[in-house]
Specification:
single chain; 323 residues; mainly alpha; 67% helix
């Protein structure tokens, strides 16, 4: 990993800009989206947050924000913290878009990877698909999942190691919660997409990409914080999550994901998203955060949606995964 701490301490302008970041963020008005972000951060960092900030912790927080700003400008430099998904995934996705590819072709493709075969069979037998009988073969599993289900499984299999990579104290502690949130955000987005007239698979990819900036942030904290505590001041959390969202969108563009995905990640920060995909992602974020809060026993967890489709949100919420 690059010695970015030394660069910031000795880098003049970058270090100087870090100082007023938290104060500037404090002047921003609170929004319902900000509340969701605060709740998400508190859930992800439960047991590792500081009740009162120390001068050293504030300095570290400023350094992390400044480094996130640098990575937003140069997203390729984040590769040491969250490496690019394997090229095999875009190749497989292109194969799945080929309508001339037969089920036998897809079965042969999947059969090359024993781990993928196991994941495919396990997914086909999961409660999500509610198969009437036990699925034991690749062909039967492909029939249950369909092309879209297989695309989602491949994408999830590619992203899981990014969060499960070896890291320091903060990454290891937050990792399982963060992956659970990522899975639920992607799942909720894919289920909500038809009601928003968005593409379900693009929604799923947007949900998987949504937390990548947070992965980077936790690994940056691993580098600078010797104590267990992470800052939780509202102004800092707002500043941090605004940057991690922007970085996630920049990484999506760097990885050559479909252009609507980066736009949706940025657009989901608005309470009235401009695109169907951004609206889908915003609602998925709400439900994934709500699932995490309820699993942790947090009270006052009602996030009203942008419309009156409460029944649809309830249906989707009930299909989200527990810890």
């Amino acid at each position: 990993m690059k010695n970015w701490i030394a660069r910031l301490f000795g880098g003049g302008m970058a270090a100087a800009r870090a100082g007023p970041i938290v104060a500037q963020a404090a002047a921003a008005p609170a929004t319902p989206a900000g509340r969701k972000d605060q709740d998400l951060w508190h859930c992800l960092t439960a047991g590792a947050t500081a009740s009162a900030p120390t001068p050293q912790a504030l300095t570290h927080a400023q350094l992390v924000l400044a480094e996130l700003d640098r990575l937003i400008a140069s997203p390729a430099d984040a590769e040491g913290l969250v490496p690019r998904v394997p090229e095999v995934i875009p190749q497989l996705l292109r194969s799945l878009r080929d309508e001339d590819a037969s089920s036998a072709d897809l079965a042969r493709l999947v059969a090359r990877d024993p781990a993928l075969v196991a994941e495919l069979i396990r997914e086909a037998n999961s409660p999500f698909y509610r198969s009437s009988r036990q699925v034991r073969t690749i062909d039967a599993a492909l029939l249950v999942l369909g092309r879209n289900g297989l695309r989602m499984l491949l994408a999830r299999a590619a992203f899981r190691p990014l969060i499960g990579m070896q890291g320091g104290r903060h990454s290891r502690q937050a990792g399982p919660r963060l992956w659970n949130h990522t899975e639920n955000c992607a799942l909720a987005a894919s289920l909500l997409a038809p009601s928003f007239r968005a593409d379900p698979f693009e929604a799923y990819l947007a949900g998987l990409m949504d937390d990548l900036g947070l992965i980077v942030a936790f690994r940056l904290f691993d580098s600078v914080l010797e104590a267990d505590a992470l800052p939780r001041e509202p102004a800092f959390v707002d500043a941090l999550l605004a940057r991690t969202r922007t970085l996630a969108a920049r990484i999506a563009m760097q990885w050559e994901m479909p252009p609507p995905i980066a736009a949706a990640i940025l657009g989901a920060a608005d309470q009235a998203p401009a695109t169907a995909l951004a609206g889908t992602l915003l609602e998925a974020e709400r439900l994934a955060c709500l699932r995490m809060m309820m699993d942790q026993g947090v009270q006052d967890v009602d996030y009203p949606g942008a419309d009156d489709s409460a029944d649809e949100r309830t249906r989707v919420f009930e299909r989200l995964l527990g810890p």
